[in-house]
Amino acid sequence: MESVLTASPGPCAKGRPREFCTDTALAAALRVFWSKGYEGTSLADLTEAMGITRPSLYAAFGNKEALFHKALDLYEQEKLEYMRAALEQPTARGVAETILRGALAMQTSPGEPKGCLGVIATMPCGSEADSVRGEMIARRASSQAALVERFERAKADGDLPAAVDISGLTSYLYALLQGMAVQAGSGARRDELERMVDTSLAMWPSR
Fold first, then answer.
1. 28 contacts 112 by C-beta, under 8 angstroms
2. I need a labelling partner for 69 at 20 to 30 A (CA). Which of 36, 46, 109, 206 fits?
């Protein structure tokens, strides 16, 4: 799960006409990265899915890494809306439940790649993709910091027990999310993941 505090993608390019819609091409690129990860995706995979030539890809999006960053922005804007909604929930348990159930719905959505782009993209990341890995880590840290702040408020308000380690609780929640993503990507059924969510919420330190 990555930072969700990114700007929304713009509309199809205006001005000098292109022979393709950049929004449609970017959405296709996102699906490829989400399915294969950053390193597992080749330029041939991208151009075939996007329906464009390699020169057109470079002209519209830059290189593969620049395209990945744009696809990641789109992913956060469209697929991680539940994270923004979670931070507005009135209780800490509501925050956790909104995140877990939102992730479950996203990771098992029919017609979409399974799992989480952030986990899929970084797990096999080698030295040649260090900058991509660094960007993913930075985005994840930003989201975790927002959750820590929200849970600290809950603790101050008495919504979480005074003895709760907020950093540990946030790390635990992220470990659940990453575990769900790995299992979803490995073919776990939705009902299996739902039981994991239900069990985790039953163990949550507040109501």
1. no
2. 109
- Show contacts of 19-23: CB within 8 Å, 24+ apart: 19/52, 19/56, 20/50, 20/51, 20/52, 20/56, 20/60, 22/60, 22/61
Which pLDDT tens digit goes with each residue over 69-100? 999 999 888 888 899 999 999 999 999 999 99
Q: What interhelical angle do 92-107 and 166-185 show, nearest 10?
A: 20
Backbone angles phi, psi at 2, to 5 degrees: -115, 180
Check: CB of residue 71 under 8 Å from CB of residue 26: yes
Question: Can you give the pLDDT at residue 145?
Answer: 95
Q: Where are the domains of the chain?
A: 70-201
Dist CA 80 CA 76 (whole Å): 5
pLDDT at 124: 55
Tell the CATH topology of 70-201. Answer: Tetracycline Repressor; domain 2 (1.10.357)
Ramachandran sector of residue 51 (left: φ over 0; alpha: ψ -120 to 50; beta: rest): left
Q: Is the Cβ–Cβ distance between 173 and 96 less than 8 Å? A: yes
Q: 119 with 184: CB under 8 angstroms?
A: no
Q: How confident is the model at residue 16, as a pLDDT?
A: 43
Q: Which residues of the chain have pLDDT under 70?
A: 1-19, 120-128
Do 129 and 63 meet the contact criterion of CB atoms below 8 Å apart?
no
Q: Note the pLDDT of residue 49.
A: 95
Look at residues 46, 87, 94 and name the one whose alpha carbon lies nearest to residue 67. 46
